[in-house]
Write a structure and sequence with these properties.
With 181 residues, the chain is mainly α. It contains six helices and no strands.
């Protein structure tokens, strides 16, 4: 007759040993540098010459910049946030101006415009969190770029979804369409 009671502790020891060996290997490998993807994305964004592809790259690059800003803000490295914030602002503005220079109508050919607008809309909350996470006296240099980003998003929405002309609008109905005599 076998005793199952002696096998259980052996299995537990084996699993525990394997777990701690993997944990030790992960710790000794060290952290993956977070700035490498940001540097690679920055280089790709700057080297891209096609305005549409550049605008499509901006959401990845912008998200990486926002993550780096948040990380520096949490580490209380506030002096490193402003340059990244301005780079984010300038990148969004450059992506938009490149698209606008093509002369394409965003309402009809929305590629690039749409991706840029969706990213900006999703990131506005993060941008506001970063501004309000800064010390009060260091917020002022971020206010104008923050407002510019909000205005850029509003401009993109208006260009992507233009209102119809007045000629196509239905005339207002009369106050009393069936007057009683």
């Amino acid at each position: 007759m076998r005793r199952w009671g002696t096998r259980y502790p052996i299995c537990v020891r084996f699993v525990a040993t394997a777990f701690f060996a993997l944990l030790a290997a992960a710790i000794s490998a060290g952290p993956i540098p977070a700035s490498q993807p940001l540097e690679r994305l920055r280089e790709e964004f700057q080297q891209e010459t096609d305005p549409v592809q550049r605008a499509k790259l901006f959401p990845k690059f912008g998200s990486a910049l926002l993550a780096e800003m948040k990380k520096r803000e949490e580490a209380k490295e506030f002096e490193g946030v402003l340059p990244l914030f301005l780079e984010y602002h300038d990148g969004a503005a450059a992506a938009y101006s490149g698209l606008a220079a093509t002369g394409r109508d965003p309402g009809k050919q929305s590629a690039g415009f749409r991706e840029l607008e969706m990213h900006l809309r999703k990131s506005l909350h993060q941008v506001n969190d970063i501004v309000f996470g800064m010390p009060f006296d260091e917020r002022e240099p971020l206010r104008k770029p923050q407002k510019d980003i909000e205005e850029l998003d509003n401009r993109l929405v208006k260009e992507l979804f233009p209102r119809r002309s007045k000629a196509h609008d239905t005339p207002p109905s009369a106050a009393n369409p069936h007057p009683q005599e």
